[in-house]
Structure formats: C-alpha cells, structure tokens
Design goal:
Blueprint lengths: L17 H37 L7 H14 L1 H15 L1 H19 L5 H4 L2 H29 L7 H29 L3 H7 L1 H5 L1 H13 L5 H9 L6 H31 L2 H7 L9 H29 L1 H23 L4 H17 L4 H6 L7 H15 L4 H12 L3 H20 L13 H4 L11
Helix pairs in contact: 1-2, 1-4, 1-6, 1-7, 1-10, 1-13, 2-6, 2-19, 3-4, 3-6, 3-18, 4-6, 4-10, 6-7, 6-18, 7-14, 12-18, 12-20, 14-15, 14-16, 15-16, 15-20, 19-20
Length: 459
C-alpha cells in the first residue's frame, strides 16, 4: 500500500500553512451560518406568521400544523445525509458542500415570493411544505461535509477548536435570523409585517448564498479524502458498509445529538418565539423584544459552543459532554419559570442559562463524530448519525411542546420532556469511549474500526 502524502499536505494530514487553515475555518463558519440562517428563518416565521398566512382555515390548530411543517423537513434530512454521505465519500467533501448551499438558497428565496393561502388556496401550504422539504435535504447533507472539512484539516491537538467552527454556524444563523426578523418587525410593524415584512429575510438569502459560494470555492479539498482518492481506497458503497458494520454506533451517536437537539429547538424551532408572542396565549409579548432576546441568547450560545470546542481539546470530548448534560439539565428546569414571568429580561436570562449547557453538548460534536468513524465511510457516518439524531430530537420538539401545553395547560410537561431527552443524551455519551486525538488518516483504518462503544472491541 502506498504511503505517499498528497501534494501540499503534511504527513499528519493537516494543511501546510496557517493561512490555509484560517481560510478553511472562515469558509466553514460563513457557509454553515448561511445554511442555518436559511433553515432557521423558516422556523422563526412559523412561530410568527405562517400559521396565519398559510394554515388559517385550520383555526385553533393552525399553529400546531405550522410547527409540524418544521418537523417534516427533518424526515427528509436522512435522504440528504444518505446522498451527501455517498457522494462525499466517493467524490469529495467540497463538491457536496457547494450543492447543499445552492439548494438551500434557492428553496429559501422561493419561500420569500410564495403566495399565501388567501391568494391561491391549498396550493400555498403545499408549495411551502415542498420548499421546506428541500431545505431539509440540504441541511441533511450540509453538516457532515462542513464538519469533515474543518476537523480533517485540523492539527490533532486542536480538532475540538477547529470542529467548533461549523458548530458556531448554528447560533450565528439563529442570531442572524432573529436579528433580521426583529429589524423587519421595526421597519414594517403590525399588518405590514404580515403583508410583506416577513418576506425580506427570505429574499436576503440570495445575497448570502452568493457570498457563501464564493468563499467555499476557494477552499482546498479535505486532506484525508485527497489521500484516499490518490490511493484509490474510496469505499464503493459507503452506506452499505456503514450499516453492515456500524449500525449500533450510528444509533448511539444519533441519541447523543437527539439529547441536545430537542432542547435547542425550543428557540431554533421557533417554539419560544411563538409561545411568548401568541396574542391569545398567557404572555402575549411584543414580537420585537422577544426576537431580540432570542438573538441575545444566540450570542451566549455561540460563546459556549466555541469555548466547548477548546475545552474538549483539554479535557476530552466525553468529559466535556458530561459536564454539558448536567448544565443543560439545570437550564431546562429554569427555562419556563423565567419565561413565564412575562418579563423580557428574565426571558433572556432563561434562554441564556440554557445555552451554556447547549453549547457544551454541541461544541465538541464535530470532533466527537469525526473520531467515531473510519476514514473511508466517515462522511456517511457523521451525516447519517446527525440526521437521525435530528429526527429523534428536534424534528417535532416544537410540535410536541405545543401539544403538551394544549393537553395539560402547563409548560411543566414540556420541562419533563426536555429533561428526559437530556438524560437520553447523557446515557448515550456514557456508553462511548473517549477517542480524542485518534489518527484520522487512511493509514489508521484498522485502529479507527475498533468499536468506540464501551464493552465492545469490534465494530
């Protein structure tokens, strides 16, 4: 077997220059921020306007059905993950990232020009759901490619820090989505927001996609994939190999993410925004202040996510996660007591406290997932685990929360639901060995193929 290193790369599988490393990090952050801005702008709009504009004939159930459309996209994320994993392991990480960015941008911009139910009837919600499905396919393929571009380029002692780059795209996307929506609520208040103000953030996606596309075009392919391609060792059917040899690992990794995602989707899925601003609800707060509070919590989430990446390089991925689950559980039990005060400052405090644990259980995920799977099937492994975790966790979390409040008349049931999901994530983490620093290159497939599940030695 050849042991040559691809031109331009060091023998350890990292980019040769600090300038190129910075370019990869910048491109990863910009690309994922744009992708998640597009994804979250929909969820934000669901909580604010889509129930009224696209599902009004359903009456009291319009909000519940509107939130369900957020979850529908998650059902198609595995399709995006399967496609991206297959092509990413066969043809490279970069080409997949370019196409996922374009697909997300087109779908988001088209939502911005979509006629409402009043204008075209049933066709309006049908087309809205179809475009949301396209967003789901794109999101399913985006994350794995972005993660591997960052982590596989990283020096071994800094994988957690490099891997945090695509992770902070989530809070940055939420910050951007909430901030733009809040700005439009000021520019076009009241009925003007319902008539046209909500459309502007969707149309802005066109500009953001052009920026993201330009930045990503200038990044080199992952050095691990480049070495696999030069050696002609790419897996022919990576998904088949993944499920034949690593099915249990995929399930456990998915449960790790599910514990984080269910809780995170209280804001990224638009639930808190809709609950706090519902004019017929217990709080009936103004739209603008709530959006600014969510945007502020996105900043604290960003900082904790970034810090968690660095921390995981010092104390290990597993230990960082365990600490995060404990803090996330504390945040779950303080969230609704603070939100239900109806005070914007305390609402922000509840969200900010929650984001500390969320960041610690999300920041190390890129490095953790990358270190779980062998190089030849890594794109498929991380993408599919992430997509399944998103379905089990965040897909219908806002819908479940809405249904629980309707059934019980209290948010306490939502608290116990989120606490249960957090404990599932903790148990799944405890089942895994810490593989921080394991070699990621194709020379070490045998070591990578040893099961990271405690008690097992073979995949």
């Amino acid at each position: 077997m050849s042991t040559r290193t691809p031109a331009g790369f060091t023998p350890t599988g990292t980019i040769a220059t600090a300038r190129d490393r910075r370019r990869v990090i910048f491109a990863t952050v910009v690309g994922t921020t744009v992708e998640w801005y597009d994804f979250f702008i929909y969820a934000t709009a669901v909580g604010l306007v889509f129930g009224q504009l696209f599902f009004a004939p359903l009456g009291a159930n319009s909000a519940l059905v509107a939130f369900a459309t957020v979850g529908v996209s998650f059902l198609f994320r595995p399709l995006g993950a399967f496609l991206a994993g297959h092509f990413g392991d066969k043809y490279g990480r970069k080409v997949v990232l370019m196409w996922t960015l374009i697909l997300m941008g087109v779908a988001t911009a088209l939502i911005g020009v979509l006629p409402t139910y009043e204008a075209i009837g049933l066709a309006a919600p049908v087309m809205l759901v179809f475009l949301r499905i396209l967003q789901g396919i794109s999101a399913g393929g985006e994350w794995g490619g972005a993660v591997l571009m960052a982590v596989e380029h990283a020096p071994r002692p800094r994988r957690g820090a490099f891997g945090a780059a695509p992770q902070i795209g989530v809070p940055l996307g939420l910050l951007l989505a909430s901030g733009v929506m809040a700005l439009m609520a000021m520019i076009a208040p009241g009925d003007a927001f319902l008539e046209w103000g909500w459309r502007v953030p969707f149309l802005l996606s066109v500009v953001l996609i052009l920026v993201g596309y330009y930045v990503r075009r200038r990044v080199e392919e992952s050095p691990v994939f480049a070495e696999l391609a030069e050696r002609k060792e790419k897996a022919r059917m990576p998904i088949v190999t993944l499920f034949r040899k690593h099915l249990l690992l995929v399930v456990i990794a998915a449960l790790v993410f599910a514990g984080n995602n269910a809780v995170g989707y209280m804001t990224t899925g638009g639930y808190i925004q809709g609950y706090a601003t519902n004019p017929d609800g217990p709080l009936a707060l103004e739209r603008g202040p709530v959006l600014w509070a969510v945007a502020g919590s996105a900043v604290t989430w960003l900082l904790s996510t970034l810090g968690a990446g660095f921390l995981s390089d010092r104390i290990g991925r597993r230990t960082t996660y365990i600490l995060g689950w404990i803090l996330q559980l504390a945040g779950v039990f303080t969230l609704f007591p603070l939100v239900n005060t109806g005070d914007i400052g305390l609402l922000f405090a509840g969200l900010a406290i929650l984001t500390i644990g969320l960041g610690l259980t999300y920041g190390p995920q890129a490095a953790l997932y990358s270190e779980l799977f062998p190089a030849s099937i890594r794109f498929s492994g991380v993408s599919i685990s992430y997509a399944i975790g998103a379905i089990l966790g965040g897909a219908f979390a806002p819908t479940i929360a809405t249904a629980l409040v309707q059934a019980t008349g209290s948010t306490m049931a939502v608290t116990w639901y989120l606490a249960g999901m957090t404990l599932i994530g903790l148990v799944a983490t405890l089942v895994l060995r810490d593989r921080s620093g394991i070699p990621l290159g194709p020379d070490h497939e045998a070591e990578q193929s040893v099961s990271p599940i405690r008690g097992l030695t073979r995949a």
